[in-house]
Amino acid sequence: MTTKNRPQRGQQFGSLKIAVATGSLAAVLLGTQLLARQDSAATAVAAQDTVVINVPANVPTTLQTGPASAPTTSLSQRQVNLNLQPIPQAAVPQIRTAPAVVRVAPLTQTRSSR
Amino acid sequence: MTLKETAMDTTTITCPTHTFRAMGCQIDLWLETDEATAVSAFAAVVQLFAENERLLSRFLPTSELSQLNGRAGQWVPVSDLLWNVLEEALIWALATDGLFDPTCLNALEAAGYTASFEALAAAQHNGRSAATHLLTGQWSAIRLDVDRQAVYLPPGVRIDLGGIAKGYTAQQAVNLMSRWGACLVNAGGDLVAGPAPAGFPGWPVGIARPSATKRTNTALNIWLVDAALATSGVDYRRWTMNGRAAHHLIDPRTGQPAATNLLTATVWAAQAAEAEVRATTSLIMGLHESLDFLESQPHLAAVLFSADGEMHQTPTIHNLAF
Lengths: 114, 322
Description:
Chain A is of the alpha+beta class.
């Protein structure tokens, strides 16, 4: 009886498939991480910064209320800047009341005997 | 330009209060407690003043003090109250080297103060100016028998406990009411305070400017807590005696109404008796001597009004002012 040591053709394809799949997965992961880094660098907002949104000039600033009404859609000729204050990262409630100035009326007084 | 006004709220202390008359003057009480408790406490204080007046008034012939004055030259057993007040008066006579003198009753009557001030104010006095038999400065000759709680007045010596008896009673009233809560007593212009009302550093009280009428204006406001504020003055209790102006503050050194350049003296002290005595002796000493003395006593604070209407203060009064 003769024993053949040559690997079978199916086994060779299996190893190749695993290698390709592993490489693809690694490439996907690396690519995702790179993209994520790019995104965060471009979109992260510092807590102290004010976000300025520029509304394009051709965006209607009023709503049309009905077909019979006068034309209400107007186009702003200027850009509208909306200044949005940053969202506090750690909100601490601070209730501040104006310092009260209280004048106390004396109840009675000392004086020589009456 | 926009003018912004700062809103100022005026706060007053609201608590049960009671007013009545005793010892020839108006008594006002404040007690921070519930209404029912205050009613009982006020009744007890009214009774206290009535009882003390019954024993210590020189205007009541039946008072224990009048009985003692009528038995000079004899040993007379006395009540706890008369003993305690007389003892306190003699201690202060010693402490002031006789400038506070409880034995000035003869001089006081010789000056025309022979009846309650209400009666004096109704008519001018035409009494004698009996400078020849004034007996002041006899306090050191009074003898006390502690074992028998008895008093010996030398012949001719008579006692007046007026101001110190009123202060003693006001202090007793505060000690009594303090069991129930923060309290304040105004006994004819002399104030004694117990603990401070809730939410305040003390009782807000004023120091009056001198006035010849019943109406007075406040010159300075202070917080009063666990302390007393007494005012002596010659601005109001005056009368004419044989055509001459007289008042009730006798200078024991002369036996005459004090020739003072002060109109009023207000003294703050921890206890009513000291405030009363220091106010009286300040008036007798006059502006400069009394101010020098008061400024040397860090446990006292004072406001003095000189005859020209000017106000003089010890630095210590600023710790209390608001």
